[in-house]
Design brief:
The chain is 28% helix and 18% strand. It has 274 residues and is α/β, with parallel strands linked by helices. The strands form 2 sheets. It has a 5-stranded mixed β-sheet, with helices on both faces. A two-stranded antiparallel ribbon has the order 6-7.
């Protein structure tokens, strides 16, 4: 909340933020980003990429009452989604949609398209030990592309925490609140909209309130621009980093728009009140 309002241009006091931080917080999947074993730390953009797969139930659901089709993990009951993430910026670089669990060749094709689109390839690729990655074909692909694969430890929380956290956000903040389309074109559209919103408008605590697009594009963070100061007696020298926009005691209104009309993709802005 503090990061979002700061990006919109509101100066919050340390005591206000402190009260929020003292509230009991429910841990999220991927909070522990300590990767056991050989730790790989991203030192710059496109130094470390993550790739992973997840399954998303469609509006038809996973199940039917007729055995033996109680859990068919394929279309039209679900989509398989492949995601590629840059570790340094947390930016979503690419995604793929599959009607059934994809092969290693299909994931390599997705990675090839992403490398071509970004005109760059990483030094390290972090993934789990799924059959698409823990196989000779994927290891040969990495060697041919001069990429060093790093595999998350089986059963160890945090070994691929960065992309796990994104997938958790994708499901909680998007897929769980919409009617997941059965048509592939419509489903791709929803994924693209969420990825754009995630990259451009959603502040990240790991990035100190910045967005992936600001990090990836080298842009000035919105949270460092001048802000409204609603407290008329707030000292001028209390926050030298953040210049007040106009006079102290400013009045403003909060406006919330939604990306392409999606209610789950809010864009927060502050406007000076008349």
């Amino acid at each position: 909340m503090a990061d979002t309002l700061a990006r919109a241009g509101l100066h919050l006091g340390a005591t206000t933020v402190g009260r929020i931080l003292k509230e009991e917080r429910v841990p999220e999947p991927g909070d522990d980003e300590n990767i056991p074993g050989n730790v790989v730390t991203a030192k710059h953009l496109n130094h470390v990429w993550h790739v992973d797969l997840t399954v998303v139930p469609t509006s038809s659901g996973f199940w039917t009452p007729w055995s033996p089709f109680s859990l068919p993990q394929q279309w039209p009951f679900c989509w398989w989604v492949g995601v590629i993430l840059d570790h340094f910026s947390r930016s979503v670089l690419g995604f793929g949609v599959f009607k059934e669990i994809p092969s290693s060749a299909a994931m390599q094709s997705l990675l090839n398209r992403t490398i071509e689109k970004e005109s760059v390839k990483p030094k390290y690729m972090i993934c789990d030990k799924g059959k698409q990655f823990w196989c000779e074909s994927f290891k040969v692909w990495c060697e041919q592309n001069e990429i060093l694969p790093r595999f998350g430890a089986v059963g160890k929380k945090g070994s691929i925490a960065v992309i796990e956290r994104f997938i958790g956000s994708l499901k909680r903040e998007c897929m769980d609140v919409i009617m997941v389309p059965i048509r592939e074109e419509a489903f791709r559209r929803e994924l693209a909209l969420f990825s754009d919103w995630y990259n451009q408008h959603r502040p990240h605590s790991a990035l100190r309130g910045q967005t992936p697009t600001e990090i990836y594009g080298g842009l000035k963070p919105a949270s460092l621009r001048s802000r409204f100061e609603p407290r008329p007696r707030w000292p001028d020298d209390s926050s030298p980093k953040y210049l007040a926009s106009g006079e102290r005691g400013a009045t403003f209104r909060l406006e919330v728009s939604h990306l392409s009309g999606r209610r789950h993709l809010p864009i927060v802005a502050l406007k000076r009140a008349a």
